[in-house]
Amino acid sequence: MKYIDEFRNKRLAQILVRKIIDILPVRAVNIMEVCGTHTQNFYRFGLDRLLPPGIRFISGPGCPVCVSPERYIDDAIKLARRKNFIIVTFGDMLRIPGSNSSLENERAKNANVRVIYSPLESLTIAKLNPDKKVVFLAVGFETTAPGIALTILMAKKERLKNLFFLTSRKLIPAAMRNLLLDKRLKLDAFLCPGHVSAIIGTKDYAQIVKKYRIGCCVAGFEPVDILEGIFILLKQIAEKRPKMANQYMRVVRREGNPKAKKIINRVFKKYDSLWRGLGMIPDSGLKIKNEFAQFDAGRFLPISKPTKINRRQAQCRCAEVLKGLISPIACKLFSRVCSPENPLGACMVSSEGACNAQYKYKCYG
Ligand code: SF4
Protein backbone atom coordinates (compact mmCIF):
# COMPACT_ATOMS: atom_id res chain seq x y z
CA MET A 1 0.00 0.00 0.00
CA LYS A 2 1.56 3.29 -1.08
CA TYR A 3 2.76 5.48 1.82
CA ILE A 4 2.31 2.65 4.33
CA ASP A 5 4.31 -0.41 3.29
CA GLU A 6 7.49 1.51 2.53
CA PHE A 7 7.31 3.13 5.97
CA ARG A 8 6.94 -0.27 7.65
CA ASN A 9 9.93 -1.74 5.83
CA LYS A 10 11.82 -3.95 8.29
CA ARG A 11 15.22 -3.53 6.60
CA LEU A 12 14.92 0.25 6.59
CA ALA A 13 13.91 0.20 10.26
CA GLN A 14 16.94 -1.94 11.12
CA ILE A 15 19.28 0.42 9.24
CA LEU A 16 17.85 3.38 11.15
CA VAL A 17 18.22 1.62 14.50
CA ARG A 18 21.90 0.96 13.68
CA LYS A 19 22.38 4.61 12.75
CA ILE A 20 20.70 5.63 16.02
CA ILE A 21 23.00 3.37 18.03
CA ASP A 22 26.07 4.80 16.22
CA ILE A 23 25.12 8.39 17.01
CA LEU A 24 23.79 7.93 20.55
CA PRO A 25 25.53 10.18 23.09
CA VAL A 26 27.08 8.61 26.21
CA ARG A 27 24.49 10.24 28.47
CA ALA A 28 20.79 9.30 28.45
CA VAL A 29 18.61 11.35 26.11
CA ASN A 30 15.03 12.44 26.85
CA ILE A 31 12.83 12.77 23.77
CA MET A 32 9.19 13.71 24.28
CA GLU A 33 6.49 13.02 21.75
CA VAL A 34 3.37 15.15 22.04
CA CYS A 35 1.02 13.06 19.97
CA GLY A 36 -1.19 10.17 21.03
CA THR A 37 -0.76 8.42 17.69
CA HIS A 38 3.03 8.44 18.15
CA THR A 39 2.48 6.98 21.63
CA GLN A 40 0.33 4.17 20.27
CA ASN A 41 2.54 3.31 17.32
CA PHE A 42 5.74 3.46 19.32
CA TYR A 43 4.49 0.56 21.45
CA ARG A 44 2.37 -1.10 18.77
CA PHE A 45 5.40 -1.60 16.52
CA GLY A 46 7.67 -2.55 19.42
CA LEU A 47 10.01 0.41 18.95
CA ASP A 48 10.54 0.52 22.72
CA ARG A 49 12.21 -2.88 22.39
CA LEU A 50 14.18 -1.97 19.27
CA LEU A 51 15.80 1.20 20.60
CA PRO A 52 18.85 1.17 22.87
CA PRO A 53 18.26 1.91 26.59
CA GLY A 54 20.05 5.29 26.35
CA ILE A 55 16.94 6.82 24.78
CA ARG A 56 14.09 7.72 27.09
CA PHE A 57 11.02 8.18 24.92
CA ILE A 58 8.53 10.16 27.02
CA SER A 59 4.83 10.43 26.21
CA GLY A 60 3.55 13.95 26.70
CA PRO A 61 0.09 15.53 26.70
CA GLY A 62 -0.81 14.31 23.21
CA CYS A 63 -4.13 12.66 23.91
CA PRO A 64 -6.98 15.17 23.43
CA VAL A 65 -9.44 13.29 25.57
CA CYS A 66 -6.91 12.83 28.39
CA VAL A 67 -6.00 16.51 28.71
CA SER A 68 -9.61 17.66 29.05
CA PRO A 69 -9.96 18.52 32.74
CA GLU A 70 -12.19 16.52 35.06
CA ARG A 71 -14.38 19.61 35.43
CA TYR A 72 -15.21 19.38 31.72
CA ILE A 73 -16.45 15.78 32.08
CA ASP A 74 -18.48 16.84 35.14
CA ASP A 75 -20.08 19.65 33.10
CA ALA A 76 -20.92 17.22 30.28
CA ILE A 77 -22.52 14.88 32.83
CA LYS A 78 -24.56 17.76 34.29
CA LEU A 79 -25.94 18.49 30.82
CA ALA A 80 -26.59 14.79 30.11
CA ARG A 81 -28.75 14.67 33.26
CA ARG A 82 -30.95 17.54 32.11
CA LYS A 83 -34.35 16.92 30.62
CA ASN A 84 -34.60 17.38 26.86
CA PHE A 85 -30.83 17.39 26.27
CA ILE A 86 -29.04 15.09 23.83
CA ILE A 87 -25.28 14.77 24.24
CA VAL A 88 -23.37 13.82 21.08
CA THR A 89 -19.74 12.85 21.31
CA PHE A 90 -16.90 10.73 19.98
CA GLY A 91 -16.77 7.28 21.59
CA ASP A 92 -13.62 7.86 23.66
CA MET A 93 -15.38 10.40 25.85
CA LEU A 94 -17.97 7.94 27.17
CA ARG A 95 -15.75 6.12 29.62
CA ILE A 96 -13.64 9.02 30.90
CA PRO A 97 -14.25 9.19 34.64
CA GLY A 98 -15.55 12.47 35.99
CA SER A 99 -15.52 13.15 39.72
CA ASN A 100 -18.30 10.70 40.45
CA SER A 101 -19.69 9.28 37.23
CA SER A 102 -19.05 8.95 33.51
CA LEU A 103 -21.18 9.55 30.45
CA GLU A 104 -21.40 5.78 30.01
CA ASN A 105 -22.93 5.47 33.50
CA GLU A 106 -25.35 8.27 32.74
CA ARG A 107 -26.36 6.61 29.50
CA ALA A 108 -27.06 3.39 31.41
CA LYS A 109 -29.37 5.49 33.60
CA ASN A 110 -31.28 6.64 30.50
CA ALA A 111 -29.47 9.86 29.67
CA ASN A 112 -29.62 10.58 25.94
CA VAL A 113 -25.92 10.24 25.03
CA ARG A 114 -25.05 9.33 21.43
CA VAL A 115 -21.77 8.46 19.75
CA ILE A 116 -21.04 10.14 16.43
CA TYR A 117 -18.12 9.84 14.02
CA SER A 118 -18.10 13.32 12.50
CA PRO A 119 -19.12 16.69 13.97
CA LEU A 120 -21.35 17.16 10.92
CA GLU A 121 -23.63 14.38 12.21
CA SER A 122 -24.61 16.72 15.04
CA LEU A 123 -26.36 18.94 12.47
CA THR A 124 -28.62 16.07 11.38
CA ILE A 125 -29.40 15.06 14.97
CA ALA A 126 -30.34 18.68 15.81
CA LYS A 127 -32.61 18.92 12.75
CA LEU A 128 -34.33 15.62 13.58
CA ASN A 129 -34.92 16.67 17.20
CA PRO A 130 -36.17 20.28 17.12
CA ASP A 131 -37.74 19.95 20.60
CA LYS A 132 -34.40 18.94 22.18
CA LYS A 133 -31.16 20.77 22.89
CA VAL A 134 -28.28 18.92 21.23
CA VAL A 135 -24.82 19.44 22.74
CA PHE A 136 -21.68 18.30 20.93
CA LEU A 137 -18.65 17.66 23.15
CA ALA A 138 -16.01 19.46 21.12
CA VAL A 139 -12.70 18.35 22.63
CA GLY A 140 -9.43 18.12 20.75
CA PHE A 141 -6.33 19.75 19.34
CA GLU A 142 -5.74 21.84 16.22
CA THR A 143 -6.34 18.78 14.03
CA THR A 144 -10.08 18.63 14.61
CA ALA A 145 -10.67 22.36 15.11
CA PRO A 146 -11.45 23.09 11.42
CA GLY A 147 -14.21 20.43 11.37
CA ILE A 148 -15.80 21.86 14.52
CA ALA A 149 -15.51 25.42 13.18
CA LEU A 150 -17.11 24.36 9.91
CA THR A 151 -19.99 22.70 11.78
CA ILE A 152 -20.61 25.91 13.74
CA LEU A 153 -20.61 27.94 10.52
CA MET A 154 -23.09 25.52 8.95
CA ALA A 155 -25.31 25.63 12.04
CA LYS A 156 -25.36 29.42 11.73
CA LYS A 157 -26.10 29.29 8.02
CA GLU A 158 -28.96 26.84 8.58
CA ARG A 159 -30.23 28.97 11.50
CA LEU A 160 -30.23 26.03 13.88
CA LYS A 161 -31.39 27.13 17.31
CA ASN A 162 -30.96 23.86 19.18
CA LEU A 163 -27.34 22.86 18.50
CA PHE A 164 -24.62 23.81 21.00
CA PHE A 165 -20.93 23.06 21.55
CA LEU A 166 -19.26 22.36 24.88
CA THR A 167 -15.69 23.14 23.96
CA SER A 168 -12.36 22.04 25.36
CA ARG A 169 -10.08 22.96 22.48
CA LYS A 170 -6.33 22.82 23.15
CA LEU A 171 -3.26 24.16 21.36
CA ILE A 172 -0.17 21.96 21.32
CA PRO A 173 2.68 24.52 20.96
CA ALA A 174 1.43 26.35 24.09
CA ALA A 175 1.63 23.08 26.05
CA MET A 176 5.16 22.42 24.74
CA ARG A 177 6.30 25.84 25.93
CA ASN A 178 4.70 25.19 29.31
CA LEU A 179 6.50 21.84 29.65
CA LEU A 180 9.84 23.50 29.00
CA LEU A 181 9.34 25.69 32.07
CA ASP A 182 9.31 22.56 34.26
CA LYS A 183 12.94 21.89 35.08
CA ARG A 184 12.14 18.40 36.46
CA LEU A 185 11.61 17.14 32.92
CA LYS A 186 15.07 17.80 31.47
CA LEU A 187 13.88 17.40 27.89
CA ASP A 188 16.45 17.18 25.09
CA ALA A 189 14.09 17.28 22.10
CA PHE A 190 10.49 17.09 20.90
CA LEU A 191 9.08 14.70 18.33
CA CYS A 192 6.26 16.92 17.05
CA PRO A 193 2.81 15.72 16.04
CA GLY A 194 2.14 15.05 12.36
CA HIS A 195 -1.64 15.61 12.33
CA VAL A 196 -1.56 18.88 14.30
CA SER A 197 1.34 20.13 12.16
CA ALA A 198 -0.58 19.42 8.94
CA ILE A 199 -2.91 22.22 10.11
CA ILE A 200 -0.59 24.67 11.89
CA GLY A 201 2.63 24.11 9.91
CA THR A 202 6.06 24.39 11.53
CA LYS A 203 6.51 28.07 12.41
CA ASP A 204 5.39 27.68 16.06
CA TYR A 205 8.00 24.98 16.63
CA ALA A 206 10.67 27.11 14.97
CA GLN A 207 9.97 29.79 17.60
CA ILE A 208 10.29 27.18 20.36
CA VAL A 209 13.66 26.05 18.93
CA LYS A 210 14.88 29.65 18.83
CA LYS A 211 13.71 30.61 22.31
CA TYR A 212 14.50 27.41 24.26
CA ARG A 213 17.38 25.99 22.19
CA ILE A 214 15.69 22.59 21.91
CA GLY A 215 15.36 20.48 18.75
CA CYS A 216 11.92 19.83 17.22
CA CYS A 217 11.18 17.32 14.48
CA VAL A 218 7.74 16.82 12.94
CA ALA A 219 7.40 13.12 12.15
CA GLY A 220 4.91 10.78 10.53
CA PHE A 221 3.38 7.82 12.33
CA GLU A 222 4.80 4.71 10.72
CA PRO A 223 7.79 2.96 12.35
CA VAL A 224 10.29 4.26 9.79
CA ASP A 225 8.93 7.79 10.24
CA ILE A 226 9.31 7.66 14.01
CA LEU A 227 12.80 6.11 13.85
CA GLU A 228 13.96 8.66 11.28
CA GLY A 229 12.53 11.47 13.44
CA ILE A 230 14.47 10.15 16.43
CA PHE A 231 17.65 9.86 14.34
CA ILE A 232 17.28 13.47 13.13
CA LEU A 233 16.88 14.69 16.71
CA LEU A 234 19.84 12.65 17.98
CA LYS A 235 22.00 14.09 15.22
CA GLN A 236 21.03 17.60 16.31
CA ILE A 237 21.86 16.70 19.93
CA ALA A 238 25.24 15.22 18.93
CA GLU A 239 26.10 18.33 16.90
CA LYS A 240 24.66 20.65 19.60
CA ARG A 241 22.65 22.38 16.87
CA PRO A 242 18.93 22.32 17.70
CA LYS A 243 16.75 22.96 14.65
CA MET A 244 13.23 22.74 13.35
CA ALA A 245 13.16 19.65 11.13
CA ASN A 246 10.33 18.18 9.11
CA GLN A 247 10.51 14.44 8.51
CA TYR A 248 6.83 14.36 7.42
CA MET A 249 7.20 16.48 4.30
CA ARG A 250 4.79 14.27 2.38
CA VAL A 251 1.99 15.79 4.49
CA VAL A 252 3.23 18.80 6.47
CA ARG A 253 4.13 22.13 4.89
CA ARG A 254 5.87 25.03 6.60
CA GLU A 255 2.75 27.19 6.36
CA GLY A 256 0.39 24.36 7.34
CA ASN A 257 -3.08 24.46 5.84
CA PRO A 258 -4.04 28.13 5.29
CA LYS A 259 -7.69 27.32 4.53
CA ALA A 260 -8.07 25.31 7.74
CA LYS A 261 -6.35 28.05 9.77
CA LYS A 262 -8.64 30.67 8.28
CA ILE A 263 -11.78 28.77 9.23
CA ILE A 264 -10.46 28.21 12.78
CA ASN A 265 -9.72 31.93 13.19
CA ARG A 266 -13.15 32.81 11.84
CA VAL A 267 -14.93 30.95 14.65
CA PHE A 268 -12.49 30.65 17.57
CA LYS A 269 -10.20 32.88 19.59
CA LYS A 270 -7.34 32.02 21.93
CA TYR A 271 -7.81 32.05 25.69
CA ASP A 272 -6.12 30.79 28.86
CA SER A 273 -7.16 27.18 29.17
CA LEU A 274 -7.10 24.51 31.89
CA TRP A 275 -5.35 21.23 31.05
CA ARG A 276 -5.57 18.04 33.07
CA GLY A 277 -2.11 17.54 34.55
CA LEU A 278 -0.64 20.78 33.26
CA GLY A 279 -2.98 23.27 34.92
CA MET A 280 -3.88 26.68 33.51
CA ILE A 281 -1.75 27.63 30.48
CA PRO A 282 -1.92 31.11 28.92
CA ASP A 283 -3.31 31.23 25.38
CA SER A 284 -3.42 27.45 25.17
CA GLY A 285 -7.04 26.97 24.18
CA LEU A 286 -9.64 28.07 21.66
CA LYS A 287 -13.04 29.35 22.64
CA ILE A 288 -16.01 30.33 20.52
CA LYS A 289 -15.97 34.00 19.46
CA ASN A 290 -18.73 36.28 20.73
CA GLU A 291 -20.20 36.40 17.23
CA PHE A 292 -21.08 32.71 17.59
CA ALA A 293 -21.91 32.78 21.33
CA GLN A 294 -25.41 31.46 20.65
CA PHE A 295 -23.80 28.04 20.00
CA ASP A 296 -21.77 27.95 23.22
CA ALA A 297 -23.17 25.30 25.58
CA GLY A 298 -21.36 26.99 28.48
CA ARG A 299 -24.45 29.23 28.80
CA PHE A 300 -26.38 26.29 30.34
CA LEU A 301 -23.82 25.74 33.07
CA PRO A 302 -23.33 27.55 36.35
CA ILE A 303 -19.70 28.36 37.26
CA SER A 304 -18.49 24.90 38.27
CA LYS A 305 -16.98 24.29 41.66
CA PRO A 306 -14.33 21.58 42.12
CA THR A 307 -16.06 18.33 43.12
CA LYS A 308 -14.74 15.73 45.52
CA ILE A 309 -13.32 12.65 43.84
CA ASN A 310 -13.32 9.15 45.34
CA ARG A 311 -10.30 7.67 47.13
CA ARG A 312 -9.30 5.34 44.28
CA GLN A 313 -9.40 8.11 41.71
CA ALA A 314 -7.30 10.29 43.98
CA GLN A 315 -4.53 7.70 43.55
CA CYS A 316 -4.61 8.01 39.75
CA ARG A 317 -1.39 9.61 38.51
CA CYS A 318 -2.63 10.72 35.08
CA ALA A 319 -1.49 14.28 35.82
CA GLU A 320 2.14 13.13 36.16
CA VAL A 321 1.84 10.75 33.18
CA LEU A 322 0.53 13.56 30.97
CA LYS A 323 3.41 15.78 31.98
CA GLY A 324 5.94 13.04 31.28
CA LEU A 325 7.09 13.00 34.91
CA ILE A 326 6.39 9.30 35.36
CA SER A 327 5.88 6.32 33.11
CA PRO A 328 2.42 4.69 33.42
CA ILE A 329 3.95 1.63 35.05
CA ALA A 330 5.12 3.79 37.96
CA CYS A 331 1.45 4.15 38.93
CA LYS A 332 0.72 1.40 41.45
CA LEU A 333 -2.80 0.96 40.07
CA PHE A 334 -1.55 0.22 36.53
CA SER A 335 -2.75 -3.23 35.39
CA ARG A 336 -3.57 -4.28 38.97
CA VAL A 337 -6.64 -2.14 39.47
CA CYS A 338 -6.71 0.08 36.39
CA SER A 339 -7.08 -1.42 32.92
CA PRO A 340 -8.95 -0.50 29.71
CA GLU A 341 -11.87 -2.64 30.97
CA ASN A 342 -11.88 -0.84 34.31
CA PRO A 343 -10.23 2.54 33.74
CA LEU A 344 -9.64 4.84 36.69
CA GLY A 345 -8.12 7.67 34.70
CA ALA A 346 -8.43 9.25 31.27
CA CYS A 347 -5.00 7.98 30.16
CA MET A 348 -6.24 4.38 30.37
CA VAL A 349 -9.48 5.02 28.47
CA SER A 350 -8.46 6.65 25.26
CA SER A 351 -6.69 4.71 22.55
CA GLU A 352 -4.28 7.67 22.43
CA GLY A 353 -3.53 7.58 26.16
CA ALA A 354 -0.09 6.52 27.38
CA CYS A 355 -1.44 4.09 30.01
CA ASN A 356 -3.73 2.48 27.44
CA ALA A 357 -0.89 2.07 24.91
CA GLN A 358 1.48 0.48 27.41
CA TYR A 359 -1.24 -1.83 28.71
CA LYS A 360 -2.50 -2.83 25.28
CA TYR A 361 0.94 -3.71 23.92
CA LYS A 362 2.05 -5.30 27.20
CA CYS A 363 5.02 -3.02 27.70
CA TYR A 364 5.40 -4.01 31.32
CA GLY A 365 6.81 -6.90 33.25
FE1 SF4 B 1 -4.43 6.76 36.20
FE2 SF4 B 1 -4.79 4.20 35.57
FE3 SF4 B 1 -2.85 5.54 34.38
FE4 SF4 B 1 -2.67 4.93 36.99
S1 SF4 B 1 -2.68 3.48 35.27
S2 SF4 B 1 -2.18 6.89 36.01
S3 SF4 B 1 -4.81 5.06 37.62
S4 SF4 B 1 -5.04 5.95 34.20
Written overview of the protein:
With 365 residues, the protein is α/β, with parallel strands linked by helices. It has 3 domains: 5-58 and 187-246, Rossmann fold (3-Layer(aba) Sandwich); 65-172 and 256-300, HypD, alpha/beta domain 2 (Rossmann fold); 311-363, no CATH class. 39% of the residues lie in helices and 17% in strands. The chain has helices spanning 10-23, 36-44, 47-50, 64-67, 70-80, 103-108, 121-128, 145-157, 172-180, 194-200, 203-212, 223-239, 258-267, 311-314, 318-322, 346-349, 354-360; strands at residues 29-33, 55-59, 85-89, 113-115, 133-140, 163-170, 189-192, 215-218, 244-246, 268-275, 279-288. Strands 4-3-5-6-11-10 form a 6-stranded mixed beta sheet, sandwiched between helices. α8 packs across α13 (258-267) and α9 runs parallel beside α11 (203-212). It is globular, with a radius of gyration of 21 Å. The two termini are 35 Å apart. The model has no long low-confidence stretch (mean pLDDT 93). It binds iron/sulfur cluster.
Helical segment count: 17
CATH architecture of the largest domain, please?
A: 3-Layer(aba) Sandwich
- State the name of the first-level CATH class of the largest domain: Alpha Beta
Poorly predicted segments: none
What letter string, H or E per element, gives the SSE order?
Answer: HEHHEHHEHEHEHEHEHHEHEHEEHHHH
Distance between the termini: 35 Å
Q: What fraction of the residues are assigned to beta strands by DSSP?
A: 15-25%
Give me the CATH fold name of the largest domain.
Answer: Rossmann fold
From the alpha carbons, calculate the radius of gyration and give it in angstroms. Answer: 21 Å
Structural class: alpha/beta
Strand order of the largest sheet: 4-3-5-6-11-10
Helix content estimate: 25-40%
- Largest pleated sheet: 6 strands, mixed
Domain count = 3
CATH homologous superfamily name of the largest domain?
HypD, alpha/beta domain 2
Q: Give average pLDDT, whole number.
A: 93
Bound molecule kinds, no repeats: iron/sulfur cluster
Q: What is the approximate shape?
A: globular
Per DSSP E runs of 2 or more residues, the count of β-strands stands at 11
